Prior knowledge:
The structure holds two protein chains of two kinds. By secondary structure, chain A is mainly β. Chain A has no helices and eleven strands. In chain A, the strands form two sheets. In chain A, strands 2, 4, 5, 6, 9, 10 and 11 form a seven-stranded mixed beta sheet that branches. The mean pLDDT of chain A is 95. Chain B has strands spanning 9-12, 18-23, 34-39, 46-49, 63-68, 71-76, 85-93, 98-101, 105-109. In chain B, a hairpin with a 4-residue loop joins β7 and β8 (98-101). Chain B starts with 8 loop residues before the first strand and ends with a strand. In chain B, 40% of the residues are buried.
Amino acid sequence: xxxxxxxxxxxxxxxxxxxxxxxxxxxxxxxxxxxxxxxxxxxxxxxxxxxxxxxxxxxxxxxxxxxxxxxxxxxxxxxxxxxxxxxxxxxxxxxxxxxxxxxxxxxxxxxxxxxxxxxxxx
Amino acid sequence: xxxxxxxxxxxxxxxxxxxxxxxxxxxxxxxxxxxxxxxxxxxxxxxxxxxxxxxxxxxxxxxxxxxxxxxxxxxxxxxxxxxxxxxxxxxxxxxxxxxxxxxxxxxxxx
Lengths: 122, 110
């Protein structure tokens, strides 16, 4: 079955960049799905960060767009997230997920990676 | 503050039927389909309902979804103790050009 696994540093200093990767197994990242990042601050709800198609098309949450870059590496079958100029407000569990869709406006995240906690602190 | 509005908590006793509401606007629920996710503590969310009322393989038919206008609902019938979790609604938003989530509802089985 399809599995996603996030990896990256668990601790990032304020003003630095957060960098995570998501390895995909059981499916090709070029299979026609979008691939996305979602985060969840401790004790809070879910926030969509952005999504990417294997051809490179990206969509970002406008509230984060200025600081976020999502890229795909088809050779490694993985995609990555970079968030620059981080603050304590970026402390969260970061999830990667596959975004399946029937049409524009009719999509869903499934499956999800297990998530990785990133703490922003000096 | 989340784009979609859910009650922060809900509760029921075993065997009861409970519903969780999700309120949005014309740019999201009013024009796109709704998904529901179930999340247990310290675990990743899991897709529960997609396309308003479709259950993925493996999801019990005790779970059902509906959508009307700019609102949606998740119903759980025959409530069981293992249903105690957080539930999130989500939908594509035409203004954001991306998916938006509700703030989540913590379901307690009394």
